[in-house]
Amino acid sequence: MPDLFLEVRDDDADAPAPSLLSEADAFEVLCTGSIVGQKLIPWGSNYSFAAAVEDDAGREVLAIYKPMRGENPLWDFEDGTLYQREVAAWRLSRLLGWHLVPPTVIHEGPMGLGSLQLYKTPSDSMTDAELYAFWGQQRIEIERLVLFDYIANNADRKLSHCLLDVKGEIWGIDHGLCFNVDFKLRTVLWQFMGCPLSPELIKDLEALRSRQTELCAELESLLNEHEITVLLRRIDAFLANPIFPVLNPARNVPYGWW
What pLDDT is stored for residue 257 in this prediction? Predict the structure, then answer.
């Protein structure tokens, strides 16, 4: 895909930093604004861009833009669907009331249709050793992320996809490899294996399951019918037996912890 490189342009180095907006206002900019500057992120197996998004009122946010054209084909995920899975992950998180995935929308950008996710500034106050220790804790906020990955069937939960932002909030990013109908879970977060789910998370699953019609309507344009059906089965399995399954270290660790 060399043509993508030819179209990349850097942001103006002298441009002012985006102003701070509420998340509701930032989401509105994502939905209605245009990408006015972008830069290729030089790592990752698919093309991703750091993007400045500005609306007609001059409000600007930073975002991560992942165009469909930049997706490398995979044998186990339908071609051209990874950006849709990014959006589906945000919608699932929102319906659960978990605020785990940054706001993510489908957007027509310079490289065509793709996902556009609000950028969350990571905290740089911890060393790598401190981050490993932090993400190994049995905190409810981390348990929520682990349960989300089981339900979404996340095949790529690396440590770099776990984000602690400058406000101390926990986020999960990079959800293009989710919602497969086959069990694909790969994760670095193993501390809850064999543990019962916290009661408040069971209640959240029950509330989501009672909203099946809304859940299906939110996801039907992003996932196929079989993927949605199997998602509901994974939720039902946890409600029937609310214990985190024991994983296989030979299969359920992502390629490269970081």
Answer: 66
Chain centroid to CA 251: 22
DSSP 256: S
Distance CA 145, CA 166 (A): 18
Q: How far is CA 175 from each of CA 8, 21, 66, 84, 187, rounded to the nearest angstrom?
A: 24, 25, 11, 9, 12
Half-sphere exposure of 252 (CA within 13 A, CB side): 17
Host H or E run for residue 143: helix 140-152
For 188, list phi and psi in degrees, rounded to 5: -95, -5
Q: Would you say residue 70 has pLDDT above 60?
A: yes
User: pLDDT (tens digit, 9 = 90+) per residue, 214-238?
Assistant: 999 999 999 999 999 999 999 999 9
pLDDT given at position 13: 43
Largest CA distance in the chain: 56
Interhelix angle 199-209/225-240, nearest 10 degrees = 140
Contact in structure between 60 and 19 (CB atoms under 8 Å):
yes
Mean pLDDT along residues 122-149: 93
Residue 51 CB neighbour total at 10 angstroms? 26
Cross-strand partners of 35: 53
